[in-house]
Amino acid sequence: MKRKLNNLNEIIINIYGAFDRFNYGDLLFPLIIKNSLDERIDNIQFEYYGLINSDFTEFGGVKTNAINELFKKKSNAKKEVIIVAGGEIIYSNWFFTLQSLIKNKYIRKANDKLLAIFGKEFIDKVCNLILEKKLVYPFLLDKSKLPGSPCLIYNTVGGSCTSAKLTSLRIKYLKQSSYLSVRDMGTLKNLKNSNDDIIPLLYPDSATLMSKYYPKEVLDKIISNETKEIITSNKQGYICFQISSYWYSKASDIVLNQLTLLSNNTGLPVVLLPIGRAPYHSDQYALKAIKSKASFKAIMPSDNSIFDIMALIANSKLFIGTSLHGTITAMSFAIPFVPLTPDIEKVNSYVNTWYKLDFKLPVHFGDIYLTSMKIINMDRKILINCRNKVIKHTEENFDKIATVIEYYKKEDQN
């Protein structure tokens, strides 16, 4: 039983992240953070912020206010905490962040041309001016621009996508935080190489706790009829496969060939599972292309909630995909997984930080079949032991966040 921090006046926990688009991992973060802090702290109220106003409650997500509203908040008697929820945000820039919110492909193409002409830095400056210089980078906050003196926390954030040193301004914003945890060794090394004064803690992605808060028996009550049908009608099991449009375009023939070999030799159907539907992920288009060409039994769900995605992976025999949070879901439910590919650095760094198995992971597309045949029948006790260790570390992260909030509140009362 976790301790609770009692006798605190009401604290507002403002959770900020990319919850304003359909990307599975981002939609999970506020749910896991809320559940974890509710266990540890009394008298807290949660508010959710994205770049724009949005409502993804239909898909299991949250309703967000635009980040501008957080800057406009007036200081009041209630102490405020701001948690940047997670994700690959340390090196984020405005251009690609905004592009992922634009659904019209023609507008995105026009913006790509603007990028080619003016460059990313110019576009970042324009966005900064529009936001009245309050938000230079999408998810790195300048504490001096926020109302009052909030407690600023970065929760298991990522920044392993590049080895470039951080700019002095990014370093300045990170150093303003009361707590900074990162989710993988690549990010940790990048921050330490950028500035010796930044002291991040290394903990697993908070979504690891999903199997604790949403075990199968809970998921069974909130998933769609379509998902229930897929699970119950394939009693011998199935393989979950996911890939983004970008990576499918790099290896479409190889992927189809590998899946055909795998399905034919295991006798299992393949559930083609869209995990990221936002632009720059667009799994649904790649998976539709695979389904149209598949000679094996391929099942593709229609629009699904984050709980449908979770349940389909949790009940599968094997997960294969380019999605980091698809792999983290498999990890959380102790399902065998084959992450793709070593060229996706955030996947590569995360898997090799937390999961030391007797297999070299992630794998290239051409190795899907052989690696899957080895992993699908591995001793599940190994996966359960690994999962339990990672969950223990994740709980430690939230214990420390709760302690930081307790200290912040006591400091205010003195």
Protein architecture, described:
The protein has 414 residues and is an alpha/beta fold. Helices cover 47% and strands 13% of the residues. The protein is built from 17 helices and 13 strands. It has helices at residues 24-40, 67-72, 94-99, 105-118, 120-130, 168-175, 185-194, 210-213, 216-222, 225-233, 245-266, 283-293, 306-314, 324-332, 345-354, 368-375, 380-413, and strands at 11-16, 44-50, 54-55, 63-66, 79-84, 151-157, 179-182, 201-202, 239-242, 270-272, 298-299, 318-321, 337-339. The strands form 2 sheets. An 8-stranded mixed beta sheet has the order 3-4-2-1-5-6-7-8. A 5-stranded parallel beta sheet has the order 11-10-9-12-13, sandwiched between helices. Helix 6 (168-175) links the parallel strand 6 and strand 7 (179-182). Helix 9 packs across helix 13, helix 11 (245-266) crosses helix 12 (283-293) and helix 13 (306-314) crosses helix 14. The model has no long low-confidence stretch (mean pLDDT 89).
Write the layout of secondary structure elements.
Blueprint lengths: L10 E6 L7 H17 L3 E7 L3 E2 L7 E4 H6 L6 E6 L9 H6 L5 H14 L1 H11 L20 E7 L10 H8 L3 E4 L2 H10 L6 E2 L7 H4 L2 H7 L2 H9 L5 E4 L2 H22 L3 E3 L10 H11 L4 E2 L6 H9 L3 E4 L2 H9 L4 E3 L5 H10 L13 H8 L4 H34 L1
Helix pairs in contact: 1-17, 4-5, 9-13, 11-12, 11-16, 13-14
